[in-house]
Amino acid sequence: MNQKRIHLEEDRIMALIIDETDLSPVEKEHLSECADCRGKKEKIQEEFALLGNLAEKFAPESKRPVLRKKREPRPFLTSAFGWKLSLASAVAVLFTITATWYFFKPLRLQNSRQNASEWTAATDHELMSEINAMVETAFPRTYLYITGEYHKGLNDEFIMFIVPPVNNDSASRLFRMKGHATC
Amino acid sequence: MGYDQHSVSQWVLEACSGNEASFNRLMDTFYKSIFRMIFYRIQSQMDAEDITQEVFLQAFNHLGTLQSPDRFKSWLFQIALNKVRDFFRKKRLRSLFQALPEKMDVEDERSEMHHHPEALENLEKADFWKVVNSLLTKLSSKEREVFTMRFLDHLSIREISNVMNKRESTIKTFLYRAMVKIKKDPSFQTLMRETL
Ligand SMILES: [Zn+2]
After folding, report:
1. For residue B170, what are the contacts with CB-CB under 8 A and spacing of at least 6?
2. What ipTM was assigned to the predicted interfaces of this complex?
3. Residue numbers of the domain that contains A162
4. Quick one: which of B136, B143, B37 has its CA closest to B83?
5. Tens digit of each residue's pLDDT (9 = 90 or more) over B48-90
6. Per the CB < 8 Å rule, is B183 touching A10?
7. For chain A, what is the domain count?
8. Domain boundary residue among A10, A37, A58?
9. pLDDT, tens only, A117-161
10. How many cross-chain Cβ pairs, A to B, lie less than 8 Å apart?
11. Which residue from B98, B78, B95 is spatially nearest to B153, judged by alpha carbons?
12. Which of residues 68-107 of A touch B (CB under 8 A)?
């Protein structure tokens, strides 16, 4: 009975404003019988509501007209169906690439050597064409006197001594003697 | 606010299937509350207008991602809240490169008060926002957000819990703490005494 006479604290009234079910049965009973506490509750409620009303009163009105824009087509990936389908496609593509990679792996290994020798042959051929072109369009010997690049000692015999023909070099001879093949 | 939840859900469904008139109805219903909600947080009319337009554009283009039409209002507030956060992030970044910080509209109104015929009302307005700002700065960021949503934006506990992705019990705890702090603040008591 004593509990019923004790008024609700301000903090309890605020808890009651947030959620009425938060009160104990004794507090509920007191509130239903006590006009003072009900008055306090209404006053606090009024104060917080006033704060909201003043905010509304002191907020400006938007002066800009409400923008009405034509709807843009929704990006495919943002639709619920779209992203699932895209994910499935991505998985399928990844699977195909992986399968293709493994299927052609032995063939690729076999081809890689052949490709390498073909590429070497092609670059060799290109280099030789450039050298031949230079030899064919070489300046006459007289020009070497004019440019000062002529040297008596740099004749064919001297060059043969410095850079012997490939077929006669010692390394090739050594290989042949030991029975190795260069290719 | 003059709308019922059933109509809102119906307009959302219609707008989802491309009915622009229904989306315009949604816009007419929530435009003011979204504009005010943004203004309360950034206190600049021009920026609030810009951001409100952005909120509705984003809502318009992503309506299909809304999981339940009943949650439209909370979803809209969520978009608005994210836009406000973006605004402050950009503002903070801008302030790093600027010598003078930008003034808020409320401050501008105070300085130009004497040149306007409605000076007294402007003074009241400026003082009111000064008190509100000082009250809100005494709360933690979560308490401030929950309190503002409940009493300034007039959202229900359930709507706040949807916007903030938090349990209703958590929202109630933050709200209770905020209310106790504000009720005991002398500037709140003065404001109430002068107004009531
Ligand atoms: Zn009582």
Report:
1. B161
2. 0.83
3. 139-183
4. B37
5. 999 999 999 999 889 988 888 999 999 999 999 999 999 999 9
6. yes
7. 3
8. A58
9. 788 888 888 877 777 777 666 655 555 555 555 555 556 666 666
10. 93
11. B78
12. 68-72, 74, 78-80
